[in-house]
């Protein structure tokens, strides 16, 4: 069946009748709990059911929102949250912004695919109309930057030529069907087939909604290519209003960078490169200082006359190397070390190291994974989830650790806490 949305892609309002309504569930695209509602079939519809690579439409039946439209044989099935009376006359309203976006992207894909094949022999094997961008899979392992530029110039020239786009219906057994470019029909297809003609450029079997003239596309921007499946290349594109939105977003970003970097757009790249170099140098210096601090902390601990059975430390700044340096400097043959690093509001790390018997006893109780250290003292390490580090700061670090691990010591352990 060919629906009203396919015969008139520009219709935004339509009156029809409810044929059937039955309870059903809708599985959200992103997962989660199913939505309870109803599947409604109408005599005809201006809401496109997903197909041919084009997502489904949104809109209203009366004042009831349509959450999904799918095709079931010759029927378009509308999923709604409220029941509708079979036989009742209803008014359909289309979400035009969503529909027109899909029309621009879909017709743009037809044009790009046709010109890519004419110019370079690149056949389209599939395509995807995403929420942010479109992707055409081309049957070629390589597309050069020069080819992308030439293709972009050619398709935009066709837009400026105001080439008409028309839709024809053919019987499924019409011999002409075999001469039209197609990737095949669904197994449950019923009724006539639709041929979308871009005058003098392309004829293609398609169930989607399309513009009536290439000038409706406004402009096409090819964003470049990405590696696809084996021997395939993905061509990324934007059409029409998506190009305008992309320019607006880029302009807003450019203005923000101009304000932050205190220079013009032409100098942004060099300014960022200088900042990156400065950050790398600071990170290197910071790492060297942390290493020096780790050595000093360990030497300070070793220089004290008090018994050295247990060493506990928390420091906001630090990483796994910082903890390892302390453990190596102090030595783990006689001393049990429990070290943590990280900000109270962020994820952190801890390290448990020491005598074999103590670590092998405490590690599993803390559900830790031992690091492979053949012929060396065992060590257990683990990431701390965001917000957990605060539990280990200050005096709570020692008391919680000792209470859980049942560590017994006749003398007061050495505890270091640094924020």
From TrEMBL:
Any one Pfam family match given in the protein's UniProt record, by short name: tRNA_SAD
SUPFAM superfamilies: ThrRS/AlaRS common domain, Translation proteins
Keywords assigned: Cytoplasm, Metal-binding, Protein biosynthesis, Zinc
Cellular localization per UniProt: Cytoplasm
Entry keyword annotation includes Translocase: no
Cross-referenced SMART domains: tRNA_SAD
Single Gene Ontology BP annotation: alanyl-tRNA aminoacylation
GO cellular component: cytoplasm
Coiled coil: none
Superkingdom per UniProt: Eukaryota
Xref: InterPro entries: Ala-tRNA-synth_IIc_core (IPR018165), Alanyl-tRNA_Editing_Enzymes (IPR051335), Thr/Ala-tRNA-synth_IIc_edit (IPR018163), Transl_B-barrel_sf (IPR009000), tRNA_SAD (IPR012947)
GO MF, any single term: metal ion binding
Family: Belongs to the class-II aminoacyl-tRNA synthetase family. Alax-L subfamily.
Alphabetical list of PANTHER family matching this protein: ALANYL-TRNA EDITING PROTEIN (PTHR43462), ALANYL-TRNA EDITING PROTEIN AARSD1 (PTHR43462:SF1)
Role, per record: Functions in trans to edit the amino acid moiety from incorrectly charged tRNA(Ala).
Protein's UniProt name: Uncharacterized protein
Organism for this UniProt entry: Geospiza parvula
